[in-house]
Amino acid sequence: MYTPNFQLAEVKVDGATYKCILKDLQFDKVTDALIHVDLLELVEDKKLSLLYLLNTLVHQKV
Question: Which end of the chain is more exposed for a tag (fewer CB within 10 A), N or C?
């Protein structure tokens, strides 16, 4: 989950399939067991706004 890459998932509910992006995971503080997942559905005709942080490295000549 904690990667700069998007994690895609296909979720099937009552025979329908949804394409989603994995948004967040929550783990139990004691056992580290997965207790909750947040997904963002991808809809073909809807725009998706994402905040994507970039780390830059600047080299300076001395």
Answer: C
What whole-number distance in Å separates Cα of residue 58 and Cα of residue 32? Answer: 38
The answer, yes or no, to whether residue 17 has pLDDT greater than 80, is yes
Count the alpha carbons within 13 Å of 36 in the hemisphere toward its beta carbon. Answer: 6
Coil, helix or strand for 38? strand
Q: In which domain, by residue range, is 42 found?
A: 1-62
Domain count for the chain: 1
What is the rounded distance in angstroms from the CA atom of residue 4 to the CA atom of residue 12?
26
Query: Global pTM?
Result: 0.58
